[in-house]
Specification:
Chains: A alpha/beta (about 250), B mainly alpha (about 290), C mainly alpha (about 280)
Radius of gyration of chain B: 19 Å
Helix content of chain C: over 70%
Largest sheet of chain C: none
Shape of chain B: globular
Distance between the termini of chain C: 43 Å
Oligomer: heterotrimer
Number of helices of chain B: 11
Number of strands of chain B: 2
Strand content of chain B: under 5%
Largest interface: B-C, 48 and 45 residues
Helix content of chain B: over 70%
Strand order of the largest sheet of chain B: 1-2
Shape of chain C: globular
Number of strands of chain C: 0
Structural class of chain C: mainly alpha
Largest sheet of chain B: 2 strands, antiparallel
Number of helices of chain C: 12
Chain lengths: ~250, ~290, ~280
């Protein structure tokens, strides 16, 4: 479904990502792990077009994504959450999610200003869909409160709902469990599996190994910008290079 | 003929470069577009005027003192206006808007104090002598202006490159959060840079005031778009770019006035600005503009 | 009773017109601010609109409606020309480009023969009537209310809060910024046309940097949280100079002071719904 080929990113002499290639099959939960600074978020930024790649390509179902502006990549079917939460604090939850639906609401400026039926029809549909997505992350009871007043864990869930609103074919989730306690992480695991069951392909960056091993069907491991291992969780867990990367050479 | 114009262009350009350098310093290190820089420029000129007329100081003594006064003003602006906004992590347009207010306050206050008319330096303040090199006439004043501008700029660049202070400033310009974690006194750097940038701007004001023998509350206003054009031309936040850009603008303006029309003189800067934005927005020396995600 | 109204009108009609036009200008800059853009050129757009509409009436003999339409169209085109290269870059570039643009427009007006040079154009017939201003403001209010609950309004807000996140939502931020900028310019131009036809003359002085800052001050002072703020702000600031006459030259300095104080202490302006909510809570206890 998602094909990453020789993706490279140079930052003024340093290789943030070094010819990384791996395929993400449809419908799986695919994990991306590695020590801090390994290049995981850089990879996400390259896929979504936030950064321009130095070399390499990304294809989504044979459609070339590299080189397209970010909004076109999203429109092609890549959704994303951010490591350092970027919700729209001044809007309420419903509005946040509806921003995600932007491309899929079928009306324009004329429809808005002339109060054409397309506007009210699509807005209604948008609100209903937004409520539905919020219910997937158990936030529908807080739909009209301001996003800035949510707790940290709730903000992360909101980002998920909002990313889902873009109707992605592949959902990129960046460290969703950061800062969560074990109970919240359990709930998150269940929600991610639930989302996957609805048919979404997920690419997940995470540090919490229990979550990664428990949820992912395949895992890619990055270290210093290079791909050092790729396979099912069982293999990765025993891979000596992976262990070395995390724990250092003296083990 | 063209050589004579080049002399004029060099003089004007070096002062533009000095002005732009102060402006770029604040933009590069504090990440603020200080739209009060033009008012500080004007304040420097008035400070020199007052020192010469009221304290009977010679102009070459008044100049450094006027720079100190403008530097102090710059520091004041940073502490009173910009610092609270930093503490509050305000939207990035807010400091710019606030400096617009400062500029208006200062310009109109100057108008209230000194009146709207153009003031001149008393007779005898400005050196009148000149000399010939072939067919070109060069005034001592022009020489002085060019030398002072260049000395100040080179001094600044040397300090930035070679001293610990300069390295700290460059680190803060690169990434304030990391610099703070590395133990650099970020607020101290901000204070110093605000002072220095304003001092340079004020100095430029004095030099322009001498060059045209005209000091008015509005003298800084046409300079703001020019300063902006220069830093875009040279590359945002790049010191060498500001200098080269300033010189380039001086040449373009003087040549434009000499060979086309003097009416549209102030528009030259914008024309250049626009051209650069179309062709190469990162300017001559600018780094590529990828921002963190 | 009608005599009293007539007297009131005779004395205050100009002030009311001025407040109306300033409200439009404040709304024009609000439109760009609501997208996170700072345009310092709205006075220049107003000037282009004023001169265009005036010339259309004086030299081409066009009816008022068409003159106004032209007065809105030309600034819109200018905004398109400036906006397309600058808006794909960071917002600071737009602020700077519009600052420079304002200067250029002022210089051009000062020097072109067709615009009457430093004397400007005079003898413009009185064509603006109260209903024009009220009608246009009503349409604007309606437009803003509709925008607020639409994908376009949400897109503006998203861009203002976080451009990176907005892009990832599939929003083409450059197009939307351009939309806000051009619409703002058209609005400023129409306001200029209206202004020219009740002040009887236009001069380059009215459309430079200072008026641009006045408009910005009014919008920020009023508050950019909603479209009501700028209207309230410009109403108050239009009347303020009358009250502050005693300050003479320092009167304009007050504008600068207001800008500084509002940015630091009242970042959401005076029309701040959260501020009101806090007052209401305090009052009820």
């Amino acid at each position: 479904m998602l094909r990453i080929n020789g993706l490279t990113k140079e930052f003024g002499g340093l290789l943030g990502l070094d010819h990384v290639s791996f395929p993400v099959p449809e419908g799986v939960i695919y994990g991306l792990i590695g020590p801090n600074g390994a290049g995981k978020t850089t990879l996400f930024n390259l896929i979504t077009g936030t950064f321009k790649s130095t070399a390499g390509t990304v294809h989504l179902n044979n459609k070339l994504l590299t080189g397209l502006p970010p909004h076109r990549i999203t429109q092609a079917g890549i959704g994303r959450t951010f490591q350092n939460i970027r919700i729209f604090r001044e809007m309420n939850l419903l509005e946040n999610v509806m921003v995600g639906m932007h491309t899929h609401l079928r009306y324009g400026l004329a429809g808005t200003l002339l109060a054409l039926p397309s506007h009210s029809r699509e807005e209604k549909r948008g609100r209903e869909r937004a409520r539905e997505l919020l219910s997937w992350v158990s936030l529908d009871n807080k739909a009209t409160i301001e996003a800035g007043s949510l707790s940290y864990g709730e903000q992360r869930k909101l980002e998920l709902a909002r990313a889902l609103a873009t109707e992605p074919k592949v959902l990129l989730i960046d460290e969703p469990a950061a800062g969560m306690n074990p109970a919240e992480t359990e709930e998150l695991m269940a929600q991610i599996i639930g989302i996957s069951r609805r048919g979404y392909t997920i690419l997940l960056i995470e540090h919490d190994m229990r979550l990664v091993m428990g949820v992912c069907q395949r895992i890619a491991v990055l270290n210093f910008g290079k791909l050092i291992a790729e396979g099912p969780p069982g293999e990765i867990r025993c891979n000596p290079e992976v262990i070395e990367a995390y724990l250092g050479k003296d083990v | 003929m063209i050589a004579q114009q080049l002399v004029n262009a060099l003089t004007l350009g070096s002062v533009y470069a000095l002005f732009a350098l102060g402006f770029t310093l604040v933009f590069g290190v504090l990440e603020v577009m200080n739209l009060a820089h033009g008012a500080v420029f004007m304040a420097g000129a008035y400070a020199a005027l007052v020192l010469v007329t009221k304290a009977n100081l010679g102009i070459w003594v008044a100049l450094p003192l006027a720079m100190l006064v403008s530097g102090a003003l710059g520091l004041l602006i940073d502490q009173v206006v910009l610092k609270p906004l930093r503490a509050r992590r305000a939207h990035h347009l807010m400091p710019m808007i606030a400096t617009i207010g400062v500029g208006i306050l200062m310009t109109n206050a100057a108008q209230g104090i000194f009146g709207t008319d153009t003031s001149r330096f008393p007779f005898g303040t400005i050196p009148e002598e000149s000399f010939q090199v072939g067919t070109i006439r060069i005034t001592d004043l022009q020489v002085a202006i060019v030398i002072i501008s260049f000395v100040l700029m080179v001094l600044l660049l040397v300090i930035l490159k070679r001293t610990r202070l300069g390295k700290a400033a460059r680190a803060v310009a690169e990434n304030p959060q990391t610099s703070y974690l590395l133990g650099i006194n970020v607020e101290g750097v901000f204070r110093l840079i605000s002072f220095t940038a304003a001092a340079l701007g004020g100095g430029a004001g004095v030099l322009i005031g001498l060059s045209f023998n005209a000091v008015s509350p509005f003298m800084g206003q046409p300079l703001m778009p020019k300063g902006i054009a220069v830093i875009i031309l040279g590359g945002m936040g790049d010191m060498r770019g500001a200098m080269v850009g300033g010189l380039f603008l001086g040449v373009a303006e003087v040549m434009g006035v000499a060979y086309f029309s003097s009416d549209y003189r102030d528009a030259v800067a914008f024309g250049l600005l626009f051209l650069i934005l179309l062709v190469r927005p990162s300017g001559l020396f600018g780094r590529a503009m990828e921002r963190k995600a | 009773m009608t005599e009293y109204l007539q007297l009131f009108w005779a004395t205050y009609s100009t002030v009311i017109y001025t407040v109306g036009v300033h409200s439009m200008l404040a709304l024009s800059i609000y439109l760009t601010l609501s997208c996170g853009l700072l345009s310092l050129g709205n006075a220049a757009f107003m000037g282009i609109g004023a001169y265009t509409a005036a010339l259309a009436t004086l030299r081409l003999g066009l009816p008022f409606g068409e003159a106004l339409a032209l007065g809105g169209l030309l600034p819109g085109l200018a905004a398109l020309v400036i906006g397309i290269p600058t808006l794909r870059l960071s917002g600071v570039y737009l602020a700077m480009a519009t600052l420079g643009f304002g200067e250029v427009v002022r210089v051009v007006f000062l020097n072109l023969e067709i615009t009457g040079g430093s004397m400007g154009l005079s003898g413009i017939p009185m064509k603006t009537q109260l209903w024009h201003i009220v009608a246009i403001l009503a349409v604007l209010v309606y437009g803003f209310v509709r925008l607020r609950h639409s994908k376009i309004g949400r897109a503006f807000e998203a861009i203002k809060e976080d451009e990176t996140a907005a892009k990832v939502m599939g929003i083409n931020i450059t197009s939307y910024k351009l939309l806000a900028f051009v619409l703002g310019a058209i609005l400023a131009g129409v306001a200029g046309g209206l202004n020219a036809h009740f002040t009887f003359f236009v001069s380059p002085r009215e459309y430079g940097f200072d008026p641009a800052v006045d408009i910005l001050t009014a919008a920020i002072f009023g508050g950019t949280g909603s479209f009501v703020g700028p209207m309230v702000g410009s109403a108050i600031l239009a009347i303020l100079p009358e009250l502050l006459r005693f300050l003479k030259a320092f009167r304009l300095a007050v504008n600068g002071l207001i800008l500084i104080l509002v940015v630091i202490y009242l970042p959401n302006g005076i029309w701040d719904r959260k501020l009101f909510a806090r007052f209401r809570r305090k009052g009820s206890v």
